[in-house]
Design a protein that fits this description.
By secondary structure, this protein is mainly alpha-helical. It has one domain. It is built from 7 helices and 2 strands, in the order αβαααβααα. Strands 1-2 form a two-stranded parallel sheet. The protein is elongated. The chain starts with 18 loop residues before the first helix and ends in an 8-residue tail after the last helix.
Length: 206
């Protein structure tokens, strides 16, 4: 086990055992506490790897189209720069207007692609995190935990390695979802929710 933190904003904050778990727990608290990186756990499951790999593939055509538009803009800018002396005023005005139009189209397309990508990325994570959350609750109830916190979202300054449940919950998730595990990408794939979020379709044009 190891201390690992993957940043991903706006998805899920503190993970606590649901109220139902408290109602079913013994009256006397045991003081048993665990920590988990929910983002890492979800992204490291076989189903998580497959889901985020598929998300990247889904947006690859839009990424390539945005790159094509960027190349067209760069070519126009180069043409204007090289033709500062030779271009007529009329041609220079036409090319500048074409450049502005292409930049506006690229800006809108980039914003739309990034917004769609982030929404799909977060929806995928939420869907998988709900399944993981149920397993965490079951594990906590079966093993007498009073509290499990998500240390990737909460500023926990120290925890003993033996209370980090991330690897344990990855194994339990894959065991509970064998079909997804069988269809997972080859070993060595490290796509996570954070990695997927970082790989946006394109940056905003300057």
């Amino acid at each position: 086990m190891r201390n690992r933190v993957i940043n991903m904003t706006g998805v899920l904050g503190l993970l606590l055992i649901p109220a139902l778990a408290w109602a079913q727990a013994p009256a006397a608290a045991s003081g048993k506490v665990g920590v988990i990186s929910l983002q890492e756990a979800v992204g490291s499951t076989a189903e998580g790897k497959k889901a985020f790999e598929e998300l990247q593939k889904k947006y690859e055509p839009r990424r390539q189209d945005l790159q094509r538009q960027q190349q067209e803009i760069a070519a126009l800018q180069d043409q204007l720069q090289r033709g500062q002396v030779t271009l007529s005023d009329e041609e220079r005005i036409r090319l500048n207007r074409e450049l502005e139009d292409k930049q506006k189209i690229l800006k809108r397309a980039t914003e739309d692609a990034n917004a769609d990508f982030q929404a799909d990325n977060q929806d995928t994570f939420r869907r998988l995190a709900q399944k993981m959350g149920r397993l965490i609750t079951e594990y906590a109830q079966q093993n007498g935990f009073d509290l499990i916190v998500d240390h990737s979202q909460l500023p926990v300054y120290y925890w003993a390695p033996q209370i980090d449940l991330t690897d344990e919950m990855i194994k339990r998730y894959d065991t509970a979802n064998p079909a997804a595990a069988a269809a997972a990408p080859p070993a060595g794939s490290t796509t996570t929710p954070a990695a997927a979020a970082a790989a946006k379709p394109a940056d905003q044009p300057k």
